[in-house]
Amino acid sequence: MTRFQSGPFAPRAARARPAQQANPQATPQASSAEREHERILGTYGGVYDDPRLQALISRTVDRLVAASERPDLAYKVTILNSGSVNAFALPTGQLYVTRGLITLASDTAELSSVLSHEMAHVIARHAAIRENQARQSAVVARVVGDMGGDTDMSALALARTRLSMASFSRAQELEADGIGVGIAARAGYDPFGAVRFLTALERNATLQARNADQRALDFLSSHPATPARVQNAQSNARQFASASASEHDRDAYLSAIDDVVYGEDPSEGFVRGRRFLHPKLGFVFTAPEGFSLDNTAQAVIGVREGGTQAMRFDVVSVAAEQTLIDHLTSGWMEGIDKASAAELTINGFPAATVIAHGDQWQFRVYALRFGTNVYRFIFASRQKSAGGDQVFREAVNSFRRLSLAEIQEARPLRIRVVTVKAGDTVESLAQRMSGTDRQLERFRMLNGLGPGEAVRPDTRVKIASE
Domains in the chain, start-ordered, CATH in brackets? Predict the structure, then answer.
């Protein structure tokens, strides 16, 4: 569907640092890297400026480079202002790590496993090879498109190409894991940091999964299944385990990430339970009972437990002279029943609604004007029901203007590092995770605690709170 044109759902380049002027003497590879750098900043919320974090990462990278097979290579690490958990590398040695990944790690050894893994991609020229593979894939796609008549042959060719690239990617990831563990160990970091972080990564993926089995996507994903990577990392770590390679640097790491923003940045809007608030644009709404919300760069997506209902909230540019009914029936969505279109007023805002029919889903769509923007609620149900329609209308009716006090009180979640006191338990500490869902599971995930594992007095742990 249409991408957001403004507000929190716009392509996030608006929040990134300004693009540098292209160097006319730059090599084609450098120009390509600059364009990719700007695209990455636009996708991942720009740069997250934190001198403590940057200093920690710079020190870690210097140690890793000195211990690597290519100490002559130079790297630059950019911290991305995104709550997602991700890291990647460009062929030029530009490394990227999100603040979401940084807050998931619990010590410098875990972070070093990520950074050395990405350095390994550069050393082994994986990133450059992937670029060539992508170009070849584009050629295959064009050829397949020209096949025309033989649908089965076209599908088979595309499937084989996709499978070949996915398998190649899995091999790259496992090779980078092996190289990375060796680099981290030679730099003096605990080689089992990779095992701990990959385990945390798997727990995070489980926590983020909504109503689909994410592991089912592993076969054709660009990364191998995390359990397989954990086993591989354990095997690699055993080869390097020694007294000289055992540094965790946990206290320094926790001090560096104390007060780092956790999850969404309020300037982009954020989710609190079933509510979505946007302090900058000044509105709030509440999703129907049983819905889980996820704020993405393009839309706020909601899914009801069980997967029988879903919703999308987005913003579009509609000319002031165009009526909302004209917009809803303009052909941007298939299956619109024009006879169902009706004008409404929702909390004083002009609005309109329409019904659409799909093969497996029934849709109820609302559009309302708020300021200069038009916001859309798109609700989908597998089965049509009057009760469901009423629930959707109640959610739309919850859309309102935030008060000045509410805007001033809207604060981001931040990582708070606290010392466990006598009598503290996992349960009592998890209850301090204000503004988060599934607090107990999230607390264990953030602190690398397995099921049934307890906290120990006088140790430091992470909580997320406002």
Answer: 47-249 (no CATH), 269-408 (3.40.1000.10), 412-465 (3.10.350)
